[in-house]
């Protein structure tokens, strides 16, 4: 009985430890809250930086700090199709939809994710390219081969530079000061980008902080895009007139006979 | 040097687009085809969203064919009478085509329909033309006289149907019924495949109605000019997918290329004209056939549904 009580107390202490350790807090921000797309835009870089704050009560920790920075871009519905053989020809037969999927996703960490947390915690904390999208378990469509299609989606978007996992993407400038450069390619969509910073030590999540930035069109890019949407008929007429004018001008300029 | 496209939402190399559209413009001016069936797949290959590619190419084709129409008009190689028959038939065909397009999309088989139509249409028409052109070339080489296309008093039966109309510029006296049917079919195919249809119209007018190639090209360009100007407006209003900056780049390259193509066409004899056009159409068809038949190295593809962009 006494032994059992002792183990209960020890267990309680062990349970209590992470709670007490939540003395750390995170301060995080981004170098720019707005990426502006102008006509010479070819992509940009945003630096996520921050500080791990410890108050006086923080106990000395055996495990070093680990940081995982996840940047999720605007969400769209993504369709993944698979080509299959039908008779002599190959056609798209199966398709799976992934609603509310980020078109841009970067997971940066100070060391490989598998060294920071267990696969189970990664899934629970939505860490890593495969897990970051799992908004809810309730999918409008659910098939046993969903993971196969998700893997294909991650692979294809990775090839396009829209998804990336940076195993050494977070740098500690001091034991508590960190920065993570995030590359935003030119093909990344316009809209809001959510930045989530998670602090770990010994596989345990200690603190979480979020910030954001947005990608918007400016100048002539913004003017044309909004013109196309707000005054479609005028925009269409302008384009058609421009096209015919070009054609007429060319025939005048090149006229020989 | 790169420029960001506001509707396609990606940067693109200016020189590459100019070179590409110049080359397609040359072919377009040479053969009197819109060139859309070449330019659209090329732009999609450059990662431009298909809806934007189709819509913007429509604007480019309208501009290029404007140049061509003016050039042929000055040379009196344009039959407005025949052109207006083709345009009105084309409008009916386009409406039917859009209805078919939407019902296929509801059934989820649109992509297959498009690919299969490209394969059958292009390989069939291209193959037929190649066979005919080669036969004519062989006959010339063998020293036999080339069969005269026009012999007084002989004409195919479909030209003798009722409602015969004289088209002076085309040196044609034929029933409007088969011409209108041809125009409806072209409009239908054009709407379903998102192409102007010049590549079908030109050989059809040459083979079935024996109209002189020079007039066929001018008249075909006129029909393309009208339909593609309409298509640009429709795409802009319904999908907002016309990219003005891309259109200007394509136009710059396209109109200049078309000028040189139009000049080159004058120095080209009818037989090599037919042989080259046949090879061009056949190769596009074979390209689509290969895509269908070869096991894909990457069976998966990710699509952003157009409405989401």
Automatic annotation (TrEMBL), chain A:
Residues 1-23 form the signal peptide. It comes from Bosea caraganae. InterPro entries: CHP02186-rel_TM (IPR019088). This is TIGR02186 family protein. It comes from the Bacteria. It holds the Pfam family Alph_Pro_TM. The chain crosses the membrane at residues 233-254. Keywords: Membrane, Signal, Transmembrane, Transmembrane helix.
UniProtKB/TrEMBL annotation, chain B:
One of its GO terms (cellular component) is plasma membrane. It comes from the Bacteria. It is a multi-pass membrane protein. The keyword ATP-binding does not apply. Pfam families: TauE (PF01925). Belongs to the 4-toluene sulfonate uptake permease (TSUP) (TC 2.A.102) family. This is Probable membrane transporter protein.
């Amino acid at each position: 009985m006494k032994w059992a009580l002792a183990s209960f107390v020890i267990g309680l202490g062990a349970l209590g430890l992470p709670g007490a350790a939540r003395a750390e807090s995170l301060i995080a921000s981004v170098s720019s809250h707005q990426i502006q797309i102008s006509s010479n835009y070819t992509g940009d870089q945003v630096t996520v930086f921050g500080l791990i704050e410890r108050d006086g009560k923080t106990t000395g920790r055996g495990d070093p700090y680990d940081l995982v920075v996840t940047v999720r871009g605007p969400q769209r519905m993504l369709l993944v199709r698979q080509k299959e053989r039908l008779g002599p020809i190959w056609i798209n037969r199966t398709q799976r939809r992934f609603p509310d999927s980020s078109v841009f996703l970067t997971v940066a960490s100070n060391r490989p994710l598998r060294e920071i947390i267990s696969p189970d915690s990664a899934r629970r904390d939505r860490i890593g390219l495969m897990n970051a999208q799992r908004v809810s378990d309730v999918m409008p469509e659910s098939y046993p081969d969903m993971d196969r299609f998700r893997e294909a989606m991650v692979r294809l978007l990775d090839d396009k530079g829209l998804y990336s996992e940076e195993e050494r993407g977070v740098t500690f400038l001091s034991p508590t000061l960190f920065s993570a450069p995030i590359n935003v390619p030119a093909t990344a969509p316009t809209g809001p980008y959510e930045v989530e910073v998670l602090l770990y030590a010994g596989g345990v999540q200690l603190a979480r902080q979020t910030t954001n930035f947005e990608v918007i069109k400016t100048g002539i890019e913004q003017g044309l895009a909004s013109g196309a949407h707000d005054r479609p008929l005028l925009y269409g007429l302008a384009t058609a007139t421009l096209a015919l004018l070009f054609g007429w001008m060319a025939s005048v300029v090149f006229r020989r006979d | 040097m790169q420029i960001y496209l506001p509707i396609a939402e990606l940067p693109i190399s200016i020189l590459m687009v100019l070179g590409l559209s110049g080359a397609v413009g040359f072919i377009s001016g040479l053969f009197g085809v819109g060139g859309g069936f070449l330019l659209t797949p090329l732009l999609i290959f450059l990662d431009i969203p298909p809806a934007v590619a189709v819509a913007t190419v429509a604007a480019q084709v309208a501009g290029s064919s404007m140049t061509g129409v003016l050039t042929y008009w000055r040379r009196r190689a344009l039959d407005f009478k025949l052109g207006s028959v083709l345009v009105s038939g084309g409008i009916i065909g386009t409406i039917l085509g859009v209805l078919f397009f939407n019902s296929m999309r509801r059934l989820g088989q649109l992509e297959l329909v498009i690919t299969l139509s490209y394969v059958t249409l292009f390989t069939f028409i291209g193959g037929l033309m190649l066979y005919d052109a080669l036969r004519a070339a062989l006959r010339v080489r063998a020293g036999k006289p080339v069969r005269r296309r026009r012999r007084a008093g002989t004409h195919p039966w479909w030209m003798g149907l009722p409602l015969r109309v004289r088209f002076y510029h085309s040196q044609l006296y034929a029933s409007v019924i088969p011409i209108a049917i041809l125009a409806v079919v072209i409009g239908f195919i054009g709407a379903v495949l998102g192409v102007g249809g010049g590549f079908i119209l030109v050989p059809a007018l040459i083979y079935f109605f024996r109209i002189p190639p020079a007039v066929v090209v001018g008249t075909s360009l006129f029909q393309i000019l009208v339909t593609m100007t309409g298509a640009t407006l429709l795409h802009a209003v319904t999908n907002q997918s016309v990219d003005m900056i891309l259109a200007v780049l394509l136009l710059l390259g396209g109109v200049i290329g078309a000028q040189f193509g139009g000049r080159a066409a004058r120095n080209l004899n009818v037989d090599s004209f037919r042989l080259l056009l046949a090879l061009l159409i056949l190769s596009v068809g074979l390209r689509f056939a290969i895509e269908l038949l070869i096991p894909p190295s990457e069976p998966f593809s990710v699509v952003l549904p157009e409405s989401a962009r």
